[in-house]
Amino acid sequence: MRLNPRDLLTGLAVAGLMLPEGVAYAGLAGLPPGRALAAGIAGGLAYALAGRSRFAVVSPTSSSAAILAAAIGGLATNELAAGVDRGALATMLVALVGVIFLVLSAFRLGSLSAFISRPVLHGFAFGLAITIILKQLPPLLGVHSPGGPIWTMVPGLIAALPRVNLPSAAIGLLALGAILALRRLPQIPGALLVILGGIVLGSTAAPELWHIALAGPVTLTMPSIDLPPLSLLPRLFQLAAPIALILFAESWGTMRSLALKHGDPMDADRELGALGLANLAAAVAQGMPVGAGFSAGSANEAAGATSRIAAAAGSVAVLLLALFASGWIARIPEAVLAAVVIAALTHALSPAPLRRLFQIRRDGWIALAAALGVLLLGVLNGMLAAIALSVGHLLYALAHPSISALGRIGQSHDFVDIARHEDAQAPLDVAIFRPNAPLIFANAEGTLRAIDQLARASKAPLVVLSLEESNDLDSTAIDALSEFAQGLSAIGKKLVLARAHDRVRDVLVAAGLGDLASHSAYSVADAVQQAQT
């Protein structure tokens, strides 16, 4: 990488976003602000050395902070965690997240992120944004209200409204309005200006007299070895796994979208390893989980970053601010920090991604269910439910494939779904069927049973089965295909396979079904001709 002076200026602008968001996310996780800053410094520099995205800013994110808070809170009822420092639990969780990333990278499992579908991610982000914003309303308004699930959070917040601290609420709402208004001028660091205004207000307006809560001291201390008992490791690993999965899904989505926009090559397995090193560095610095958040990455790109030096310069700038301006940071009103978090999440409140899914009639209810899962089950359980929803939807789609009856268009070699093309006609004495999914153990028997019923209902003595969706067959599919062929033969119908891949032919021969393999063709047209002759 060559040093570009523009990257240094971009890093200063990025630091103006990293600093307030880091302090705010630490409060969201229930940890001292210094932990978020240490994570952004150590994790950001580690990623700059090992990663490849020139726009990614690796630092604490809102989703990881919320899930970390939920994970640590879930340990409150664990007897083994009784008396264990909250910070020690956070350090071990961050270290385990790093280890998980490195193991996945070593086994080249970057494709696992695809198991959380984009509709589920949209729904999860929407529900998470609502949850986090609701949790930031009490500090924004200067009131105390119970946490917990949304059905206790919202009534508690409504009950606390008569006790709103008007000066705190005024500061918070003005800060939020200023950040949102300054977004129209992307060259101006709105969040940084608002933070500077908060520092001036907290240092000169005697906020204690107005009962305005402040951020408190920000200190970067030397790391110390303070770990929970080893007997907690299994439970901590269970909690670290979903943090790692959502962090990578969020980070990879950010990295990939920005890379595609500029034509940069990306390797998911390489980025897994880089994120693993970044989280281990954050754990050594006793920080929080780190990933590539969309807001910081987009800000880095918009500011004109040309290499990873920009994000590294931002981390160094945060370090200098934490060392030499910690007293000023401590005077930031909590209402201002809450406004920074809310402003950073307003983009996730847009209903456009969900509305688009309903417009194209694909996965809209899946995304909505993911959002409701976060709101009703909490952040951690909601995320686990979202992952289960993604996998469950995939399995359901594979287990229930649609079946098309094919016909020829005119005298061409094109065979299409008769139900969708009125000009398609089935060839004389031939019934052609195509399962619209690979034949695997989960669907082979049911799919071929349904095709068998259609074939028996047809008067055509010849049946062509198109296997264009199946690149290979497992043992269950082979057995089901053999039974299907035997069933047709018993009623005097002949089966010919179309679009049979070479691997399918090889496995049929190996399974003793050489006759079925020999009566197969590479195209539907050839299969029809072979069946008729």
Question: Would you write up a description of this structure?
Answer:
By secondary structure, this protein is α/β, with parallel strands linked by helices. It folds into 2 domains: 5-395, no CATH class; 403-532, 2-Layer Sandwich (Transcription Regulator spoIIAA), CATH 3.30.750. 62% of the residues lie in helices and 6% in strands. The chain has 22 helices and 8 strands. Strands 3, 4, 5, 6, 7 and 8 form a 6-stranded mixed sheet that branches. Helix 5 packs parallel to helix 6. The longest helix is centred in the middle third of the chain and has 30 residues, at 233-262. The protein is elongated, with a radius of gyration of 29 Å. The model has no long low-confidence stretch (mean pLDDT 85).
Descriptors for this entry?
533 residues, alpha/beta, Transcription Regulator spoIIAA, 2 domains, six-stranded mixed β-sheet, two-stranded antiparallel sheet, 8 strands, 62% helix, elongated
Outline type:
elongated
Number of helices: 22
Oligomer type = single chain
Count of the separate structural domains: 2
The helix/strand order is HHEHHHHHHHHEHHHHHHHEEEEHEHEHHH
Low-confidence stretches: none
Residue-averaged pLDDT: 85
Q: From the alpha carbons, calculate the radius of gyration and give it in angstroms.
A: 29 Å
Distance between the termini: 66 Å
Let me know the number of strands.
8
Structural class computed from helices and strand pairing: alpha/beta
